[in-house]
Design goal:
- The chain is of the alpha/beta class.
- The protein contains 17 helices and 25 strands.
- The strands form five sheets. Strands 1, 2, 3, 4, 5 and 11 form a six-stranded mixed sheet that branches.
- Helix 8 packs antiparallel against helix 16.
- The longest helix has 20 residues, at 2-21.
- The radius of gyration is 27 Å and the shape is elongated.
Length: 507
Amino acid sequence: MLRIFIICFYLIFVSFAQANNKPVLTVVSEEWLGVTNADGTGTYWDIIKAVYSDSYQLKLKTMPWPRAMSLVEKGKADILVGVYANNGGHLLFSNQHIDTEYPVYFLHDNQNIRVRHVDELANKLVAGRRGWGLEKHLPSSTSFYGVDDIRNISRLIANKRIDGALTYSYNLHLADPKSSLATVELIPAMPLHIAFSPNEQGHRLKAIFEQQMPKLLENDLLKHFFASPEDYHHANLIDAAATRKQVNWHVISKTFNKNTKKLEAMPWEVFTSEYIASQVNEFKFDLKINNYKETKKQLLQTPGSCAINVRKPEQLNNNILYSNAFHAFLAPRLFIAKDSLLENQISALLADGKLNIMQLLRHHVTLRLAVKDSFGLENNVRELVGSELSNRIITVDKKNYDRLSNMLVQQRIDALIVLPALLDSESNLLGTEPLTSYALKPALGKTLLTYIACSNDDVGRQVIKAINNLLSDEKHQKAIYMPRIKQMEAQTAKVYEKILKLTLLPQ
């Protein structure tokens, strides 16, 4: 036993000694949330570890950007992380980038200030999300006002407390939900590199980086370092498909992430985008996360542009093509607990499979009917039932309950009217409890169809044709839609399948 202990101790000691014998590598950057955190975590730090940790002891340090650059230029630190290759510093830049920064926009009231270039923000007060490094783009005379949350920053601009605000493209709607302000792209999407000291050690480290990165990419070892699949795609690290025509594939950010405090793409849209890209492999798909306004602009102005899950306007533009119906946002439905006494009672009230709310309320004088308020749904319900029955309506929102199914199952309410789309977009509000649902008559809204849109050019026409073929093929329907249908309540799923002419559920 003592011998085994001595051997184990020796092995641990040798491993520790070997680790300490590795040369020290000092890697510096400014602290940017999620990518170069002060505690040594984050996407960019993980990439550095993957490339160098086998051969070096790593010291990862965060500091103000000017100091970080100065240390690497003077050889007092070895690597600078997250730098533009054309920044003009006396550094060695990597050929392979580690990320692509999203475009930066400036929000402002053009009646008070007109801006076309970032230099015109000199001597202005500009706001932006604290910790995201946006201030590095500004002239030295600009005063930067850091905020913890970009939501509704348009109010500060409207009240003239600031001259404007910087935000990444995916958060434009979050910052200005009413689109009341002017926007201008000040910083285009640009690749971010790492840089090395201009000395023999720097050349050696650069060579290691250029050797290791293709191996990591080839073995798909970098994707899990990124916060989301869409961030990895946007980084655009792999360019092996350069011989193929490129499709600028736009996914519109719609879902607010409470943790990152930014608008993000819906996971199903990203999953579907990846699937389409894997099947339409005669093109290289460059996935971009954008707001609706910028996406529409790209569809009209940039050849080879497409967008997933967008509505078709009543007046079509000849410069944009649309696929067959891709998705349906179903009209509001009434949900109750399955196999409850109310289910049997409602069956007697149905007419053509639909339920009249006023008849339901009059027939069940103690019925507790809740409405998940969104897009004016509560007002529509109250207007429909009139003042006589309006006081029977209970309004719920995310501040009241995140798990509305508990209210039904635990009999806090008897029935709930909600947009079925919220079941996915708001973290599956109704959970997995057994529920059933009913269409309403009169309807409280329309079912909205969405499509995949492409610019009307040679690439766009080919992509739309390929997508229509996918959407009509049962094998591809299963891959695209079954993950979503499995999350739906059974009656909702049947309606969804019928509207999109799918053939997935047993008849």
